[in-house]
């Protein structure tokens, strides 16, 4: 998996897309490697993932245009499905995933960041969906997730105009949660991941599932999803430990994901 590096720091996993000379552009090989890297994550011991790009210029500059330029209609649809399948795996991955956007996040780069739970970025980050300027639509979820994350009107404006936006504008419209100086981005991502990892893993994972599934349905159905997620936490070691620590006024908690 030379295109995707995986590093473990305690109970945090860091996935780095590693094609810096190509600004970490996504091609079929990278997508395959990312898919395999996700499968290799030990979800029993890792409690949060960080996704970033190699180098100082780019998170993911987009999909590989050289690979896409000669595709037929059927091949184009298949390539879109390949990307969507991997990005959907990130979106539904049992662990929280933080995108640490360290530069260009264009096209497929913006799309992969949107499949993550939380996006933070460096001051030099640039976001955009430039596809219509290339004669195509966003193909890895851009038309769907951008409208859900910001607003339909803002998503349409960005997609129709193919205009890139700065980190600060991305923050203003709610596309990212925070903006950091470049040298502070990964420390901030790791600090956030650590703050997530210290909490009860079953509860965090159930929250992710409940939020994601609830957003796709009506409020009455969503409340039932939450009730089941809530009930599922009881009779676990971590629920007893968390509540026991509170009642005993203990700061230290021994969450074991069981």
Mean pLDDT: 97
H-E string: EEHEEHHEEHEEHHEHEHHHH
Query: Oligomeric state of the chains?
Result: single chain
- Please compute the radius of gyration using only Cα atoms: 19 Å
**Strand fraction:** 15-25%
General shape: globular
DSSP helix fraction:
40-55%
The number of helices is 11
Q: Could you give the order of strands across the largest sheet?
A: 1-2-3-5-7-10
Tally the beta strands.
10
Q: Structural class from helices and strands?
A: alpha/beta
| Poorly predicted parts | none
Q: Major beta sheet, specifics?
A: 6 strands, mixed
Q: N- to C-terminal separation?
A: 31 Å
Write the layout of secondary structure elements.
Elements: E1 4-9, E2 12-17, H1 28-40, E3 48-53, E4 58-60, H2 65-68, H3 73-91, E5 97-101, E6 104-106, H4 108-114, E7 118-122, E8 126-128, H5 142-149, H6 152-161, E9 165-166, H7 167-172, E10 178-180, H8 182-197, H9 201-214, H10 219-232, H11 237-247
Parallel strand pairs: 2-3, 3-5, 4-6, 5-7, 6-8, 7-10
Antiparallel strand pairs: 1-2, 8-9
Helix pairs in contact: 1-3, 3-4, 4-5, 5-6, 9-10
